[in-house]
Amino acid sequence: MTMASASRRRLAIDLGLSLGLAVVYFLLARISMLFSVHSAHVSYIWLPAGLALAALLAGGPRLIFGVALGAFAAEYSDGSALLPALAIALGNSASAFAGAWALQRLSFSRSLEHPRHLLMLTGVGAFAAPIVSATIGTSVMLWSAQFHWGEWPPMWATWWAADALGVLLLTPLLLAWPVQRAGPPSRPAALALSALQLAVGVCVFMLHTPAGVYIYLTLAVIGAMHIPLTGVMLINLLTFSVAALGVLVGVGPLAGSSLHDSLTILQTYGVVSALAALLVSALTAERAQAEAQRRRSLERFQQLNALSAD
């Protein structure tokens, strides 16, 4: 294979991946747009933010075209004018690129094997990077007179929290899944706890049981101490999806007096629950690693004692 043909093949692969990413981004964006009550169409949940960051971390900056294309298609199909749609797509792409670039400079590992990598992803990817897209997006909408100056702070906060929620829900799952899937199978106790947590979550968020939320959160924290990270994040995503569906149809403990109130509660719950699951999982992993290191040190010490006794 000549260098030219290899280059063309590589370009074709990158283009295919970018187009596939754009399609998935567009579909997730259209789903996320269901959770918007503002005239400016600012969503309370933005799952594409998590997809975009995971894609750039796993595939590199060459996939930025797919993020930009998917973001533009989503905004333009939602009724935005050409220039605002282009500017918002640029902001979403810049946010994902900035997050991936900063994490790579911090020696971030996509396998999320160490607790510090989860903390990096939370601090940089979920909390810092969305500042870019929220600032650009709301500024563009303000410039195009979609809302007034007095509405800018709450619009900015909603946009930022929606992106942060998308990263917390999707990025750890997408990054860790290929690595942990190749590892040893989960223990039966972890599988049983996962099934119990999922069943309780579905019952709690489809019935009007406000106290049940606290029961579920307690069970989720316990689960994060015993279930692998991919299982923790998958269950969290599934139960959050059930809670979001309940909000849309007006049932469950998160349903408020208005859709705006319900979505605010849902967004707050999503950020808090995902963050709690990640932090507990990180602390549990750190404790397990410290215990494993202690056992290895004890074994080496015993071996040295046996050698010196001989």
Rg is: 22 Å
Structural class: mainly alpha
Q: Globular, elongated, flat, extended or rod-shaped: what is the shape?
A: globular
Helix content: over 70%
Number of strands: 0
Per CATH, what is the topology of the largest domain?
Arp2/3 complex 21 kDa subunit ARPC3
What's the number of domains? Answer: 2
Oligomer: single chain
Distance between the termini: 62 Å
Topology:
Blueprint: H1 3-32, H2 47-59, H3 64-77, H4 82-105, H5 115-128, H6 130-143, H7 152-181, H8 188-206, H9 210-224, H10 229-249, H11 259-309
Give a description of the structure:
The structure is a single chain. Helices cover 79% and strands 0% of the residues. The chain has helices at residues 3-32, 47-59, 64-77, 82-105, 115-128, 130-143, 152-181, 188-206, 210-224, 229-249, 259-309. The N and C termini lie far apart (62 Å).
Gist?
The chain is an all-alpha fold. Helix content is 79%, strand content 0%.
Descriptive keywords:
310 residues; mainly alpha; Arp2/3 complex 21 kDa subunit ARPC3
